[in-house]
Amino acid sequence: MTFVSELQPQSLWKHFDQILTIPRPSTKEEGMRRYILDLAERKGYRHRSDATGNLVVEKPASPGKEGAPLVVLQSHLDMVTEKNSGVSHDFERDPIVPRQEDGWVKATGTTLGADNGIGVAAMLAVLEADDLVHGPLELLFTVDEETGLTGAVALDSNAIALQGKRLLNLDSEEEGAVTVGCAGGSSTKIFLPIETEPVPDGSAILDLRLSGLRGGHSGLEIHQQRGNAVQLLARALHAAFQEVPFQLAAFQGGNKHNAIARESSARVAVPAGQRDAFTQAVEKEVAAIQEEIRNVEPDLSFETHDGTADKVWTADLTRKLLLLLNTLPHGVLAMSQDIPGLVETSVNLAAVSETDGKIQVLLSTRSSIASAMTATRRRLRAAAELVGASVEENEGYPGWKPNVQSPLLKLFRDVHQRVQGSDPELKAVHAGLECGVIGEKFHGMDMISFGPVIEGAHSPDERVKVDSVERFYGLLKETLRELAGG
To answer: 233: closest CA among 250, 221, 216, 218?
Structure first.
């Protein structure tokens, strides 16, 4: 047990404290499922699950509220597994190490998992409590959300068979707001076969590393114009390529489709006599980049060291990859014309890696308009085909269209006004929420999403504001009471 279990409300934080000790990367949430099932079985509650691992626990109504409408609570079990370079942490075995700082809970060099662990902990607190007022509940815990809402997309509506028509999603990250819509999303993978040859005679091998960027959520923070390490290193190398011939021996950066790349690295072979000219050309471009984005990325750093290599990529492959990475878009492509300040369409140039003898470039596309999503995916495919690359696209997931006439929304706004003394701001987010998928599988579902203050999700800077969690849980309890008829 850590200090986390002593925070208020303890009924919630004690579960989050345990959650921190349970590994839960996407697709590996069995430990969390077991923790929930153990609690449900101790309480004698019925539960059901599907082959994917999605889980529902039924909690009967509190005394006298048996006739109230059935309500669904929903959160996802997995977390984004990001860590700072130099941090030794195995997300499949090691517990998250929390620390408290100025009223916030953070992790130590890794993501915290407050997204969506706080929502899960709130549901477990509700599940365990004997003194709450509520109607009959279905608590839906989904898996594999962070890789593209995959668990919800694969949810078996026959096995899960939700009966409730009002859903409270607890996966939002802003206090004083209620989310009523979200973007759809999809991913694109571009592949270039790796072609190698011996290192040219008289070559100098250099290792380059660009780091210190903030990273962050590729949807919620894409409009903040944070630097993308993959894009920026590719830009610097392409600039140098115009002046000095070289061949790549490696290029990698980024990690998750839903995280902005914070670090990237490359290995190059340069004619020894032009080593200084190459280094100067790269550093000149990096200096220009630093000047352009210094206000948002003050900690950007760039290093060059001597390296070794047995082989290099061909000159043709080097040229193709640099052209591709400098052609592919990253960032906001369009803003909504209906909701001021809302990103409508974006692309995250998420990661470059080597896999099965190929260079893989991973991109994530988001849009609240289906036709814009399709057009953007075609654009990515066109860029790939120009350099002879192959393309794989996933099916993606749908957006969630706002319903400002929602009866559930009206009830929540009334509760928020009474409890918080203010009307919540209505939000649609440029990120994937499982509400869109669940709404497609269970037609007629009335849905809202709300949560505490979480910042820096999907990066090691992730943190949750302690006092906001208490207010969030209070809102949840009062909303359940109101839905049960007070």
So the answer is: 250
